[in-house]
Amino acid sequence: MAKATNKTVKGIIEEYKAVVGDEVISHLQQLSKPLRGARVVHVNSTREGGGVAEILHKLIPLKQALGINATWEVITGESRFYQCTKGFHNALQGVPQSIPDGLLRAYEETNQRNAEDLRQKLVDADVVFIHDPQPAPLLAQMPERKGRWVWRCHIDASHPYRPVWKYLKQWVTPYDASIFSLPEFAQKLPHPQYIIAPSIDPLSDKNRDLPEREIQSVCQEFGLNPEVPIVLQVSRYDRFKDPLGVIEAYKLASKLTPLQLVLAGGGASDDPEGEAVLREVRQAANGDPNIHVLLLPADAHRTINALQRTADIVMQKSIKEGFGLTVSEGMWKGKPVIGGDTGGIRLQVINHYTGFLVHTPEGAALRIRYLLHRRDVLEEIGARARRFVKENYLITRHLREYLTLMNSLLSGSQERIEVGS
Ligand code: UDP
Predict the structure, then answer these.
(1) DSSP state of 299
(2) Average pLDDT over all residues of the chain
(3) CATH (domain of 272)
(4) Where does the pLDDT of residue 416 fall: very low under 50, low under 70, confident under 90, or very high at 90 and above?
(5) Residue 273 has what pLDDT?
(6) Do the domain assignments include residue 116?
(7) Does 48 share its domain with 12?
(8) Contact in structure between 164 and 88 (CB atoms under 8 Å)
(9) Residue of 304, 317, 348 to mutate, ligand 1, most atoms within 8 A of C-beta
């Protein structure tokens, strides 16, 4: 991936200053001084689709802009590998399922092969962040590694299916540390565990301000009626995102109030179940002209941005959710979010304050009707939601926590860490 050039570095930093203020940026510069030139590698399993890729696209250039030699590598595999890792994902989020030995072998062999391809880049790195279970066995393939290795779990692993966690634990245990998004997700592991919540980038195409005419043209493109309220859920077509529950909520709410529902999603290249879920969603929508099921390309960031801006209410009715970037994305655009009462959604949706937490389609329908009936409350909650994201879930906070962690990992047993002034 391209490095931030000297010419762009100052520009990048200045742009963030305009959003978050001088002090936040100066703090990041201080924390990054001892890390200048450090070789930091992030590894995951997809360049596009899903929250992890979304974050890495933004975090890496920012680390580079702060003088860190940060890079991003993606492991690749065949369909049996992704079948296996989707099984891990489901099992870590509590679905009992046994994974056949043949798939586990495919997982291990894929990691062995990727380890050979990445060996040069990984053995000499000062810090390696391995994201989620897909590349977890890489560490076992690098006995000659020099740096500190951290496993970063983005999944709601609060109640994993035990036999699968027991298998995965053998790969995760030898890491120097692990990171989870919430304290409830942390596991019994023999190394330090850190809690770092994810974030959104206010300057990305997904989140930056858009001209009104661009928003209108996206509405036209998808045949949305500007006179009828819009409820939107942006998500991969995944059962944990409960798109069928969203359709049910829409059906209940639209009996009493005119409404349009937009389900916007695409696939992630490491998610083999998307097509089946999309078929179920289309079936449930049953040709209703006010339900818009959109299948978007991976780079449709401005389109999603425009949809989030045009929506009256953003939904994220997940049943399990590691964090849910789509929640902060909606809130940043001043929208109240109706979210499933689970995992990382609870960090962002403060019930009755920045949105509503719900357990059922009936509960979601009730909140939709209430917000559309009480525009004053809708706007008030939306404004608070934006402030809440600004204070807590922008990439600058995320980066500060990563820098602090890297300083601590690289300082060894030193009693004092001198950061720059
Ligand atoms: N997203 C996207 N296109 C889609 C669906 C999702 O760009 O068709 C983005 C979405 O805007 C968000 C990320 O992918 O930035 C999804 O992250 P989240 O944490 O909500 O869920 P995950 O997919 O990681 O479970």
Answers:
(1) T
(2) 95
(3) 3.40.50.2000
(4) confident
(5) 85
(6) yes
(7) yes
(8) yes
(9) 304
Domain range for 140: 6-199+394-410
Residue 325 Cβ < 6 Å to ligand 1 = yes
Structural domains of the chain, count: 2
Above 90 in pLDDT, residue 373? yes
- Chain centre distance of CA 196: 12
pLDDT (tens digit per residue) in 12-44: 888 999 999 999 999 999 999 999 999 999 999
Cβ(307) – ligand 1 distance below 6 Å:
no
Residue type, 333: K
Residues 6 or more apart from 272 whose CB is under 8 A from it?
A: 79, 82, 83, 86
Which neighbouring-strand residues pair with 357? 339
Question: Is any atom of ligand 1 closer than 6 Å to the C-beta of 235?
Answer: yes
Q: Apex CA 385: angle with CA 381 and CA 390, to 5°? A: 155
CA of 394 to the centre of ligand 1 (A): 16
Name the pTM for this structure: 0.93
CB 178 near ligand 1, within 6 Å: no
Q: With 50 as the cut, is the pLDDT of residue 1 above it?
A: no
Ramachandran area for residue 406 (φ above 0: left; ψ -120 to 50: alpha; else beta): alpha
What is the 71 CA–ligand 1 centroid distance (Å)? 22
Ligand 1 centroid to Cα of residue 334, in Å, is 18
pLDDT tens for each residue of 284-298: 999 999 999 999 998
